[in-house]
Records
---
Amino acid sequence: MRTRVKICGLSRPEDVAAAAQAGADAIGLVFYPPSPRGVSIAQAAGLLRHVPAFVSTVGLFVDPTEAEVRQVLAQCPLDVLQFHGDESPSFCRSFGRPYLKAVRVKPGLDLLQYAENYADAAGLLLDAWVAGVPGGTGQSFDWSLIPADLPLPLILAGGLDPDNVAEAIGRVKPWAVDVSGGVEREKGVKDPARIEAFMRAVATTYVG
Ligand SMILES: O=C(O)c1ccccc1N[C@@H]1O[C@H](COP(=O)(O)O)[C@@H](O)[C@H]1O
């Protein structure tokens, strides 16, 4: 079985097309204004018109207000919400949509307890903990900190790229991988060749 792939931080129609063409299972749009990959609601609505059938769309938020999420959902038909901050379980589930809860992993964090707290999440997305930055840092983390028996689908993120994703899949065996900086030419501008290379590396790494 091939590991699923989400390509995150798209902000141009041609990048959406490149991700879909290369076979990405999901694309992510960043609704976090401080990010260089952030998109406005209008921009996101335009990008979503370029997403073909059977490619899931994910909206990424970092500690948004309820009103902010609802404003986005009113104009953007997102399939899944990704909460990348300190949102509570009740906040995450209050929109009635499947959601991913992102966790920034560092030693001492009890990931099994975290997963239990967000038991109704569609997946737990593990990213690197970097002081002062909520995500999208291009940093990886110590994969040995991931328990083998996480009770939620595991989405591995953090510093993945075409050169290390096969090793990551072999070692962690995640449900899906999530990449942003590793397939970029510059922040917010994806590189179709790197997207292709990433997808090829995933496609040729089968897990039983
Ligand atoms: O992409 C961003 O700018 C971002 C900002 C705030 C929170 C999360 C963000 N991106 C997510 O971070 C991980 C890892 O990214 P990378 O591959 O290491 O660059 C990924 O889930 C992005 O979706």
---
Amino acid sequence: MKVAFIGTGNMGGALLRAACRSVGAASVVACDWSREKAEALAREVGCQVAPDALTAAQMADYIFMGVKPHLVRGVIAQLVPALEGKVLVSMAAGVATADLSAAAQGRCPVVRIMPNTPCAIGKGMVAVCAGPGAEEEHLAAAERILSGAGLVRRVEEGHMDAFSAISGCGPAFAYQFIEALADGGVLAGLPREEAQTYAAQMLLGSAAMVLETGKHPGALKDAVCSPGGSTIAGVAALERGGFRAAAINAVEAAWEKNASLGK
Ligand SMILES: NC(=O)C1=CN([C@@H]2O[C@H](COP(=O)(O)OP(=O)(O)OC[C@H]3O[C@@H](n4cnc5c(N)ncnc54)[C@H](OP(=O)(O)O)[C@@H]3O)[C@@H](O)[C@H]2O)C=CC1
Ligand SMILES: O=C(O)[C@@H]1CCC=N1
């Protein structure tokens, strides 16, 4: 099975790295508008490079679209002569499978996914949803290609924009939190790099506790807060700063924006 990535920027490049781990670099083709970008990636991972999108599509069985949402339909339209017998996989935020399929003139099954940048190191989260023509075998093959990316879940299309807000956009929110915690550490006299490591490892461990214990985050939070102690002082400060409202608002804003990106 050959897999092509058309658009190997931040997200397409991250998923291409993951696919090289899952199916082997010899089965992977990179294609980008800026050829140097695809060639640099190919030198790093050992995959092939296609000179243009149509050639990439002709070379592959599974065609992953990594271009921006406002471009994806136009690029798919250029691939129509090569789509018979292939499967199209789009990572474009907010673009519905019906629109992707229409751009492909119904020539092939369509799968929509939503990855995140931690997929580059195998610690990502990916949603997969079936579009027109996609059968179980196509979804299973897409999941096999994505298995080197991290946790893969099937999500119904009506939930894709909300999923994207938490998981696709969320890494940026998490990095903001890590950066802010490190700023606090620097304020308290820690070297920047040390403070950043402490913050990132703390977040990694806390996330693993949620996933591995299955406990409610509120209960895990309570277990850190000693009565009259330092943690509850910090928790109260976060509440005074509107921390939880800010997080909810961030997801809501990203959800609404995702829905509009595909229009
Ligand atoms: N970034 C993220 O965290 C996530 C992004 N996504 C989705 O991934 C997609 C890509 O986003 P992102 O990686 O951030 O964007 P980038 O701009 O980093 O990457 C897009 C790449 O596609 C290239 N490109 C544009 N047109 C073509 C074409 N016709 N043929 C080949 N290559 C082309 C661009 O080249 P050039 O720069 O020269 O124009 C660029 O290198 C979007 O649809 C986005 O919604 C989904 C989840 C998370
Ligand atoms: O910011 C964006 O539009 C994309 C969608 C999900 C993550 N990044």
---
Amino acid sequence: MRTKLVVGNWKMNGNLDQNQALLNAVVAGTRELQNVKCAVCPPYPYLAEVQRTLENTHILWGAQNVSQFDLGAYTGEVAAEMLLDFSCHYVIVGHSERRSLFGEDNHTVAEKFKKVQDKGLTPILCVGETLAQREIGETERIIEEQLDAVIKLVGVDSLVKSVIAYEPVWAIGTGKTATPSQAQGVHLFIRNKIAKQSETTANGIQILYGGSVKSNNAGELFSMPDIDGGLIGGASLVASDFISICLAAQR
Ligand SMILES: O=C(CO)COP(=O)(O)O
């Protein structure tokens, strides 16, 4: 049985005071959780605060992005090695906002994935199609290309030390959640695709769903056989919502 995982992607939100209140509430509200892992990914400047607050708790943390380069002359970038100083566990790579707004292509995302793994951190690889791509029946092809770029660089067996997040672009921040069966269909496609190369990896890998997950739809999504939890945007900024979503993963 795969453990469920719920990760909050705070995106570019928060400040020291708000973060502290949110983290304290989430720690208290999820204390009784069993067999569910929870994590938060704050913006870089708050990693020290998050580390200080969450060390010695049951909640893990990570970063939202990383450089594809090692330490050096790359103004504005953050290397995977630096994230080790903050005891990060996870690093999100290839979020659709990075792909569409910051020009990250499949190859760059694969390089980032590799850098994260090389430092012993766990990448959360985001994949997903746009509405236009879904409407012309390209969902599987797009996701296959996104996965293949990574598999080509690191090999299929390395995926077992990663998490995949299926985030249909049309569902992110729109309030339009994929139906549980739409999401399940794509999750199964991803798992079957990996299984063709490695059954063990396919059975072990956690595949999260992301895109307008809220407290009122999380339970149904997480009950699908190939949905192993969620990557939560907006609702991860509201303590009571994020706690409810984490609790929904337990059922
Ligand atoms: O992009 C997401 C998480 O990475 C999803 O965001 P929302 O939950 O706000 O739709």
---
Amino acid sequence: MQVARRSETAIAAKSISLTFPTADGPVHALKDISLAINRGDFVSFIGPSGCGKTTFLRTIAALETPTGGTLSVNGMTPDAARKARAYGYVFQAPGLYPWRTIAGNISLPLEIMGFSRSDRAQRIARVLDLVDLTGFGGKYPWQLSGGMQQRASIARALAFDADILLMDEPFGALDEIVRDRLNEALLDLWKKTGKTIGFVTHSIPEAVYLSTKIVVMSPRPGRITRVIDSPLPRERPLEIRDTPEFIALAQQVREGLREGHSYD
Ligand SMILES: Nc1ncnc2c1ncn2[C@@H]1O[C@H](COP(=O)(O)OP(=O)(O)OP(=O)(O)O)[C@@H](O)[C@H]1O
């Protein structure tokens, strides 16, 4: 008997290319990107400025259209997946509306989607708890620290319970101590929710600490130079960063980044 099963692959890219026409000639932002991301994976994209990390995340989110190749998100085209609200997107800056409270900011996409008032209230309470901001729903963004604001923006992306969370360098502007805490909190959230996460970063330790899969990219043209599957356990205290396994993995990422540079 055949049992209908949901595909294990959340995101499948086959030979994706994206060329931007510009006044100075075409910019090959992505070239021949093939990658499979499984459900529940935590995938980091790392590489120097201009290697196409943001562009690739934006193609997954249907904010850019590839000029070649095929891309499926939850078995759908990116556009259909966007309409089905298959993902939440977290930008580098929290982007909270200053005239709305934290709860009001989280509520906004839910209002647009037509969730009822009581459903919204339940969802807001749940996601505030997930990002450890219970009790801050009534505050305005300017009353919160940068790290708290970024947690609020993650809560907003989680509120409609998409299976996929796309995060474009969400902690890039924060100091190291706050970043460490948010990295721990994000891992905890990932374990609790089982979401598939695509995460852009410039930081090798951040990529190694968080990911089950690390995608190393290189510019001109934007391409993948290495895909490293992490052997680290899913249970990761911050001290794991001092273990030989962690250091060896960071070394592999560094080598991948160097390979990319020698191509220039
Ligand atoms: N709308 C656009 N029009 C023209 N070129 C673009 C556009 N968007 C991105 N690019 C170019 O595509 C390349 C990839 O850009 P992208 O922002 O994806 O890189 P990135 O790896 O995310 O960089 P960073 O780490 O600096 O954010 C760059 O050369 C960039 O200038």
